[in-house]
Specification:
CATH architecture: 6 Propeller
Number of domains: 1
CATH superfamily: TolB, C-terminal domain
Strand content: over 45%
Largest sheet: 6 strands, antiparallel
CATH topology: Neuraminidase
Length: 330
């Protein structure tokens, strides 16, 4: 029988923002809740079959960083991107728009290099300081799934299965590529480090799970779900993984916990599948059924899925205000 495991309530967006729309939210590398909130009077429109909102072409918002009872606000004015992702960076933040299609380029031209001045690529990532001033902005490709910063200030971006990126060429053109998987950026943009360039035997269709730890990053890309370990020097190891359903990842040494979720009995079931690296592969050891505080069953899919070393933070679909914590040590 699969044992039950109760998640802890980790953080709640303060009541002062109860009437605000939450456009993006996360838990940062220090365990703080960070969110982008906005006055709903600016006409945010629900996206059909989604828990996200379509933002107006120009809007004002506030980035909120909650460290226990301490709250730091960063007012932002005249935003013009459909921001869906946020994380902290120093005393400031990083914002990103997940979708970023080039304007004015027909699909028939995707097979040939295109002059940079014809692409009109959007700077869909912005690094903003604690006073609300933009420090840098850069193009990071289309189809962003996760955006996470680490303790050293690097920006890790993973991608889903519709991802694409226009790579720069030395002659001033750019060439189209897809299945980007995972990239690391410096805070000033510049040329990224891309995992797909350093793992030629791995197909990065969709980076299902990402864990940005203090020293090491781990990822499990679809469709084969190998456990890929990366540090500041590059890829350290690629380990075959027998656990082929992993939507989130916590990891401590040779032990790991992978999030699985599915519909069950008319509702939703969140599971942790525990695994261990042994004999050159990840082998499943046991499973846990996750419950929310007060033994409540989840009412939607798990979202967020922020993995950092041995901790995984989750929230329910449609509720970015409450975040729950799973710890491998508990």
């Amino acid at each position: 029988m699969v044992a039950d495991h109760r998640l802890a309530l980790h953080a709640t967006l303060p009541d002062r923002y109860a009437r605000h729309e939450v456009l993006a939210a996360t838990i940062d590398h220090r365990g703080r809740l960070a969110a982008l909130v906005a006055d709903p009077a600016q006409r945010f429109v629900p996206i059909p079959r989604s828990s996200q909102l379509r933002q107006p072409s120009r809007y004002d918002a506030t980035a909120v960083i909650c460290d226990g009872p301490e709250i730091h606000e960063i007012p932002l004015t005249d935003l013009n991107e459909q921001v869906t992702l946020i994380d902290t960076h120093g005393d400031g933040i990083v914002l990103a728009a997940a979708r970023c299609e080039p304007v004015g380029i027909g699909i028939e031209r995707y097979q040939e290099p295109v002059p940079e001045d014809e692409l009109h690529l959007t700077h869909n990532v912005q690094v903003i300081d604690g006073g609300g001033q933009i420090q840098s902005a850069f193009y990071a490709g289309d189809g962003i799934k996760h955006l996470m910063t680490d303790a050293r200030g690097a920006i890790w971006i993973s991608y889903f299965d519709e991802s694409n990126y226009w790579f720069p060429n030395q002659d001033g053109t750019r060439s189209y590529g897809f299945a980007i998987g995972l990239a690391r950026w410096d805070c000033d943009g510049g040329q990224p480090w891309m995992a797909s360039d350093h793992t030629p035997d791995v197909f990065w269709c969709d980076c299902y799970s990402l864990n940005v730890g203090r020293e090491v990053v781990h990822a499990c890309p679809y469709p084969d779900f190998p456990l890929i370990e990366i540090d500041g020097h590059g890829v350290r190891s690629i380990t075959p993984n027998s656990i082929t359903r992993c939507h989130g990842l916590a990891i401590s040494g040779a032990e790991m916990a992978l999030l699985d979720q599915h519909r069950a009995g008319g509702g939703f079931r969140w599971e942790i599948r525990r695994g261990r690296r042994q004999s050159g592969a990840v082998i499943e050891s046991d499973r846990l059924n996750l419950l929310l505080p007060h033994d409540r069953h989840p009412t939607g899919w798990a979202r967020g899925k922020i993995g950092r070393d041995g901790t995984l933070w989750l929230r329910e679909d449609g509720d970015p205000r409450h975040w729950y914590r799973y710890e491998m040590s508990s």
